[in-house]
């Protein structure tokens, strides 16, 4: 479907390698000193977004060569193939069409499901739909794992200021202590359960669903009045005891980590109301259009991806940090870890041959200013260089001077990372300082600043779609398949086998370490 092009064999890659030797010792501070209009050349303004990428180890030639690389690997054709519904997920013979879920001109089957989400949402919020004892629902428990948990969770947490009276809870991990504690906090009479599993075969989700189902039965509830499902497997969902009309359909062409835009986002709609859910979809759709139509030099996801390739493959900076300056977005790094690392953590190219270059970057982060009092010490004075995305909002939901202080930190950190500070031998009181060397900051640390007008359903939709498209571009350049995850599935299969061995107290054939640990566990 795509051209299988080893990026290291392209003309642009060789030019970039030569250019890297020119740039590796260049300081960002000097680039600014030599061009007082630098930010005008290296920023993109789109809708309510500003991407300032001027604080990077690049010059215009760098960007031109990176775009040359994108053209040489036929990125434009790859984008068209993705949006056209072609089977770009070739290893699984699937299209990749989660973008169709937020398309204003959506397919009829998508429109039908959206209408069903809208009606169900309105019935629950208004109290038209009641539980077994004819009481209104007050709590919603979403049971899923991976994209069936991280996606809706990041949205509901980020947009908590828009929530209604319903309290949304997420259960993903198979940790009985946590589940028990959660169930003790809520009333079964007023609790709605959403089981999210495309195959309705995900072991963690089904185990947790059984526990919650038994909890409802134990407390005298009719499960058909309290449980709905999001799945493509109608038969298994019905066999579990869910009424057919309470099953929301998923499609084969929606990957789990890109599924919050589908009925997987039912908990989002219930928490925020369907109107806000639609705004989320609209924001993502607008980013889709920007990604499809905008020239690469002004295309936010493309520029972010190209910078990532520049650092990962030429400077050997293997990690990237995501630092949102909004406490509501504390789960964003975890969400993006799945989107990016599960997509591009591949060592085989599209020809089935091991790659001879680095692929997926390691994603991590925390909210500011918490991160400043944790790992920013390493950012400023450590030996590692970690390109960082700073995400901030001009307008808070609730206006206060405290937001100005938060944003002062936001702006200060990118400036400090770039400029550093020369401790010299003179202290601030003009006296010799024996600790001067320890107080020196080299600077020259790259960052992107993503400044958004306000955190709303629409801007959040755009932001999440932006990172999806960045991930896709990276995968195209690295000549890998970004939409399968066989590594995850292999671990699941091993876990099933070992679980059977634990239940039967019969350890199979393993390496000596695993056998030793299993014996310790079983003999405790």
Set out the fold topology.
Layout: H1 11-23, H2 28-33, H3 38-41, E1 43-46, E2 49-52, H4 60-72, H5 75-84, H6 108-126, E3 139-143, H7 147-158, E4 167-171, H8 176-184, E5 191-196, H9 203-218, E6 227-231, H10 234-239, E7 247-249, H11 266-272, H12 274-293, H13 300-315, E8 319-324, H14 332-344, E9 362-365, H15 376-381, E10 388-395, H16 401-419, E11 447-454, H17 457-478, H18 486-504, H19 512-522
Parallel strand pairs: 3-4, 3-5, 5-6, 6-7, 8-9, 8-10, 10-11
Antiparallel strand pairs: 1-2, 2-11
Which terms would index this structure?
524 residues, 6-stranded mixed sheet, 46% helix, 19 helices, alpha/beta, globular, 5-stranded parallel sheet
Structure write-up:
With 524 residues, the protein is of the alpha/beta class. It has helices at 11-23, 28-33, 38-41, 60-72, 75-84, 108-126, 147-158, 176-184, 203-218, 234-239, 266-272, 274-293, 300-315, 332-344, 376-381, 401-419, 457-478, 486-504, 512-522, and strands at 43-46, 49-52, 139-143, 167-171, 191-196, 227-231, 247-249, 319-324, 362-365, 388-395, 447-454. The strands form two sheets. A six-stranded mixed β-sheet has the order 1-2-11-10-8-9, with helices on both faces. A five-stranded parallel β-sheet has the order 4-3-5-6-7, with helices on both faces. Helix 7 (147-158) links the parallel strand 3 and strand 4 (167-171). Helix 1 packs antiparallel against helix 4 (60-72) and helix 7 packs antiparallel against helix 14. The longest helix is centred in the C-terminal third of the chain and has 22 residues, at 457-478. The termini are far apart. The model has no long low-confidence stretch (mean pLDDT 94).
């Amino acid at each position: 479907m795509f051209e299988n092009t080893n990026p290291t064999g392209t003309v642009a890659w060789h030019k970039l390698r030569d250019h890297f030797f020119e740039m590796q010792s260049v300081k960002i501070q000097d680039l600014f000193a030599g061009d007082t209009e630098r930010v005008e050349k290296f920023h993109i303004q789109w809708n309510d977004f500003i991407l300032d990428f001027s604080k990077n180890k690049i010059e215009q030639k760098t960007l031109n060569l990176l775009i040359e690389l994108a053209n040489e690997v036929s990125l434009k054709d790859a984008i068209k193939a993705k949006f056209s519904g072609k089977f770009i997920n070739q290893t699984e013979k699937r299209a990749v069409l989660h973008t169709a879920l937020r398309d204003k001109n959506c397919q009829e089957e998508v429109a039908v499901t959206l209408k069903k989400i809208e009606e169900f949402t309105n019935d629950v919020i208004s109290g038209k739909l009641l539980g077994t004892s004819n009481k209104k629902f007050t709590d919603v428990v979403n049971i899923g794992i991976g994209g069936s948990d991280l996606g809706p969770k990041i949205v509901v947490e980020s947009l908590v200021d828009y929530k209604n009276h319903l309290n949304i809870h997420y259960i993903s991990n198979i940790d009985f202590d946590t589940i028990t504690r959660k169930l003790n906090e809520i009333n079964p009479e007023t609790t709605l359960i959403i089981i999210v599993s495309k195959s309705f075969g995900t072991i963690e989700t089904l185990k947790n669903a059984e526990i919650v189902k038994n909890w409802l039965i134990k407390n005298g509830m009719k499960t058909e009045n309290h449980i709905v499902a999001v799945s493509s497997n109608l038969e298994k969902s019905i066999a579990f005891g869910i009424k057919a009309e309470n099953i929301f359909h998923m499609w084969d062409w929606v990957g789990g980590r890109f599924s919050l835009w589908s009925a997987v986002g039912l908990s989002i709609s219930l928490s925020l109301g369907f109107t806000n859910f639609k705004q989320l979809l609209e924001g993502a759709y607008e980013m889709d259009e920007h990604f499809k139509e905008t020239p690469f030099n002004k295309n936010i996801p493309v520029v972010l991806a190209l910078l990532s390739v520049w650092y990962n493959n030429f400077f050997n900076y293997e990690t990237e940090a995501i630092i949102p300056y909004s406490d509501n977005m504390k789960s964003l790094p975890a969400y993006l870890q799945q989107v990016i690392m599960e997509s591009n953590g591949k060592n085989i190219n599209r020809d089935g041959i091991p790659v001879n270059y680095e692929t997926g970057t390691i994603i991590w982060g925390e909210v500011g200013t918490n991160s400043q009092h944790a790992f920013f010490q390493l950012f400023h004075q450590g030996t590692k260089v970690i390109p960082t995305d700073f995400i901030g909002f001009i307008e808070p939901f609730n206006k206060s001077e405290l937001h100005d202080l938060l944003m002062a930190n936001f702006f200060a950190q990118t400036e400090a990372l770039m400029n550093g500070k020369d401790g010299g031998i003179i202290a601030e009181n003009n006296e010799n300082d024996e600790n001067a060397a320890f107080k020196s900051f080299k600077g020259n640390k790259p960052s992107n600043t993503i400044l958004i007008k306000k955190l709303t359903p629409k801007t959040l939709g755009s932001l999440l779609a932006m990172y999806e498209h960045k991930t896709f571009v990276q995968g195209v350049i690295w000549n890998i398949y970004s939409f399968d995850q066989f590594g995850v599935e292999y671990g699941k299969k091993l876990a099933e086998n070992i679980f059977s061995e634990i239940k039967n107290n019969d350890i199979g054939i393993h390496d000596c370490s695993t056998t030793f640990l299993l014996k310790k566990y079983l003999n405790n």
